[in-house]
Specification:
Layout: H1 2-29, H2 36-61, H3 63-68, H4 101-107, E1 113-122, E2 130-136, E3 146-155, E4 159-160, E5 169-170, E6 189-201
Antiparallel strand pairs: 1-2, 1-6, 3-6, 4-5
Length: about 200
Amino acid sequence: MDRAQAHTLEAFVAALLLVAGLVFASQATAVTPLSASTSNQHIENQHRAVANDLLAVTAEDGSLREAVVYWNTSEGDGGFINSSEERAYYTGTPPEDHPLYGTLESFFAERHLAYNVDVSYQRGPEATDRSTQPMVVMGSPSDNAVSATRTVVLYDSTELPTEGEEETKTLAEVENEFYADDIDPDSQVYNVVEVRIVVWRL
């Protein structure tokens, strides 16, 4: 009888040790909110939310469309107004008179985030036939970069910046001097563009 009780006690102790070991191991390897992968994912989600918010705000107030057509149609091969002479885009923060300058500064610069901005536009009636015009290029995105996009419809009647001229010009009037073509001359839609922002921490 004593021998049977001893075996029962040994089995109980062994089971207790096994359960304790499993509990300890699971706690030692658990993924917590402070782990590197979870923390990085949280930061990336924050950056994506900021980029989406910027696109939503600028689409609402009209400055996103203004930025898309902030194009020099009066000199040479064109380019975004006050961009580098060698390139048609900005190689850093856009100038202060750019429609997105203030928003980009408050959303990204103050958070120490770098960004690239591209405009993808249709080359013909097929939505899949597209080209890309860079607007802002700050560098090569890091491995943790995130992106956000927003579609903007341009119309034949969309006005471009006047650059000091008395009369404004529309896209229909400057078609050959603008980077995107009129995809459907028989409609009021000039082109459908997609603004893409890529964001990463400096």
